[in-house]
User: What shape does this take?
Amino acid sequence: ARMLSLRPAVLALAFLLSVAPAWAQDPRAEALPGEAELRELEATFAVRLTELVEMLRAGNELDRGAAVEELGRIGLPAHRTLAGLADQEPWELRCAAVQALAKIGLSPVLPTLRAYFKDANWSVREAVAAGLGRFRDAAGRDALLAALDDPVWRVKVAALEALAARREPSALGRILALADSADEDVRYAALEALVAFDPPEAKARLLPLLADADPEVRRLGMRGVLGRDGNGDPRALLPLLRDAHLGVRIEALQAVLPRLGLELPEMLAAVEELIGFLALPPYDPRYAYASGFLEQHAQALSQPLCRGLRHADPGVRREAMRILSDRRVEAAGPDL
Assistant: This one.
């Protein structure tokens, strides 16, 4: 029944958007509306804005998500309504208002969005930090840098992610400092930001990550050493081919194989170890890792797989034959 009662309002909104000026349909394509035009549009949308605020206040998660999306599409005519929710309860209402302001994504809403950083609820501040990643002006940058001093780690992490999305050069010093944070979540987020940001100044900081005690950090180190363009030195990853964590070894092989082939003895030894894992039962995670990698790279690994056909273990011979046959590796014809 509620859906039926909302139908006229939804249809009216679709009509209004279809006849609205270009900035209302794509706000980034045209100049912003004047104050008189904005007031007129606020009056036009007044009833629907009231309904949407009620959905933010009392609706379930699905209702709130739909209301946030619609408020973002309405754009600047919803700004003053959303600004008026800054001191209202519950906190989920304020959090949804922040998300809608970020969806609007235009410079006039930025002071309102930054003002929500004073909210006592950390979830609201976290939403502000995430939303500011959509803006590229200096004020948004300064607010995000200030958020790195928030007492709650989740807000710091959201600010780091937003700064990484902006690839903000002036944030590099703060991000490097937080890469040594005692808080593991903040440290990991800072390292992820450095990897995503990929500044040349960060290379020296990322290389030692390959020897970090945490396998997830070692994975980050791999991405950082290779860089966003993949032109980093793959030889720096060779020690990871003997990593204690099999998943890290596999990822290092994935990264190094296309760049270095099988010429190096470290590469060949790592591949032959995986072929040996084919003797294990299918429920063993080492078998799953090994068979998946060998199937994916069967053509490039045809020679060691063909040698697997003469392995002492019948399970290895059987699995090597299956992989070569399934992948139709032409070079394996005579051996098969």
